[in-house]
Amino acid sequence: MKTNKLMRLEAAGWTIGSTEDFLQLNNDEAQMVALKFSLVCAVKKSRIKHKLSQIDLAQRMKSSQSRIAKIEAGDASVSLDLIVRALIASGASTRDIQSAFKTNERACDVALK
Amino acid sequence: MKTNKLMRLEAAGWTIGSTEDFLQLNNDEAQMVALKFSLVCAVKKSRIKHKLSQIDLAQRMKSSQSRIAKIEAGDASVSLDLIVRALIASGASTRDIQSAFKTNERACDVALK
DNA sequence: TGCGCGTATGTCGATATTGACATAAACTAC
DNA sequence: GTAGTTTATGTCAATATCGACATACGCGCA
User: Fold this and answer.
1) For chain A, which terminal residue's Cβ has fewer other Cβ atoms within 10 angstroms, N or C?
2) Whole-model pTM above 0.85?
């Protein structure tokens, strides 16, 4: 019997698994953030490696310098789409892009400066 | 001296490299499309592998069944963000995600059915 | 000092993307 | 058959994201 307490909980607006869902969501969120971070790092690395200013890169992908700055700053208003576009436009190779998806990257700043 | 013809062209609204930019853009676009395609395939594979219905997956990522359908159909209104979120939520491992970024995947349908 | 260059930050109107919903279609199993 | 399950498609109001612009900051150099 799993009815009694369960039903009371559900009556109160809870469902079984809600905790797991919550944690799962957090975990997924974390993965997403880590992924974005890696890619952002890769963008900056690739841009500098190819000796491009933010303006150069912006022109390449028909965006604006401020967008590039926001990308590299990890601004909340930039999508994964834009990050990956920037990565591609910056001249990163397919291999670079792929390896950027390893989330176990070292801290970005360290590698950059 | 690269001034003469160049200046005339620029006066006409052209800049050097515009053709390259054009091709570059197309190439970047193509890379982006290929990437999305690979990921979409990976989502469907992973979802089925984990025996999830579109509704299940939708609940996991707090989205809707119709969105999942659109994702897997390659609808124009789905962002890379959502695709990757779906991939993560479907239970794909980090390794799965990474390997999904190899653009030289085989056709999706073949593998799926 | 001031000037040029690259970058950071805030704002804003226009556009893209979202979840939700309705509904149809495809497919099983009875 | 039809009832149940899964997936596909269209619509829409709410929100997220966009490029563009202004502007400030840091930094090297004359």
Assistant:
1) N
2) no
CB contacts, 8 Å: B94 with chain A: 31, 102-103
Mean pLDDT by 10 residues, chain A (113 residues): 41 51 74 93 94 95 96 96 96 87 58 43
CA-wise closest residue to B85 among B51, B113, B60: B60
In chain A, count of helices (H) and strands (E)? 7, 0
How far apart are the C-alpha atoms of A15 and A8, rounded to whole Å? 10
Angle at A58 between CA A54 and CA A64, to 5 degrees: 100
The pair of structure tokens assigned to A53 is: 């200013």
Q: Could you give the angle at the alpha carbon of B75 between the alpha carbons of B72 and B78, nearest 5°?
A: 90
User: At which residue do the structure tokens 């944690």 appear?
Assistant: A23
Smallest Cβ–Cβ distance between B103 and the set A32, A61, A94 belongs to A94
Whole-angstrom distance, CA of residue A26 vs CA of residue A4: 29
